Structures are given as C-alpha cells and as structure tokens.
C-alpha cells in the first residue's frame, strides 16, 4: 500500500485525486459501520469528518507550486512547456 501511495503522489494529477477519494470513501464506509443505529447526525458528522482531510490533501497539492507538464515536473510559473 505504501508503494501505491508513493507512486500516486509522484504521478500526481488524477492518480493522486483517485487515491484520496478512495481513502475518504473507505473512511466513510468504516465510520458508517461504527455509528450504525446512532442517528442521522452521526452519519452527517462522519461525512464531513471524512471529507475534510480529503479536501485538505487536495488543497495542499494544488498549493504546492508544482505543476505536471508534458516534460516532467516544472515550477508553477504560469508557462507550460509544450516540448517544442
């Protein structure tokens, strides 16, 4: 699992976003199993409990200043190299 997480972090983009979404979905599934029968407020609270770390990871990734370009990782300068 560590190798999959590291590869998703290195590849970035949708690979990382998919991994984050899968982790959040797994968290929410387990949360729903724990609070089964406790009431609606626990389910709604658990949704946000699982959503917040996922959004935080994606927000940190977007603010990192590194953008995937066609020729590797380049600093985010607003200019994307097209390989020509």
Give a quick rundown of the structure.
With 84 residues, the protein is mainly alpha-helical. The protein has helices at residues 2-11, 13-34, 40-62; strands at 66-69, 72-75.
Explained architecture:
With 84 residues, the chain is mainly alpha-helical. The protein has three helices and two strands. The protein has helices at residues 2-11, 13-34, 40-62, and strands at residues 66-69, 72-75. The protein has a two-stranded antiparallel ribbon with strand order 1-2. A hairpin with a 2-residue loop joins strand 1 (66-69) and strand 2. Helix 2 packs antiparallel against helix 3 (40-62). The longest helix has 23 residues, at 40-62.
What descriptive keywords fit this protein?
single chain, 84 residues, mainly alpha, two-stranded antiparallel sheet, 65% helix, elongated
State the end-to-end distance. 38 Å
Strand order of the largest sheet: 1-2
Largest sheet: 2 strands, antiparallel
What would you call the structural class? mainly alpha
Rounded mean pLDDT score? 77
Q: Note poorly predicted spans.
A: none
Name the shape in a single word: elongated
Order of helices and strands: HHHEE
- As a percent range, the share of helical residues equals 55-70%
Helix segment tally: 3
Beta strand %: 5-15%
**How many strand elements?**
2
| Rg | 17 Å
List the helices and strands and how they pair.
Elements: H1 2-11, H2 13-34, H3 40-62, E1 66-69, E2 72-75
Antiparallel strand pairs: 1-2
């Amino acid at each position: 699992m560590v190798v999959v997480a590291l590869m998703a972090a290195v590849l970035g983009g949708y690979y990382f976003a998919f991994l984050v979404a899968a982790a959040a979905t797994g968290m929410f599934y387990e949360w729903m199993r724990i609070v089964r029968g406790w009431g609606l407020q626990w389910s709604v609270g658990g949704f946000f409990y699982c959503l917040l770390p996922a959004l935080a990871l994606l927000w940190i990734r977007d603010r990192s200043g590194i953008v995937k370009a066609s020729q590797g990782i380049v600093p985010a300068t607003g200019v994307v190299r097209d390989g020509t």
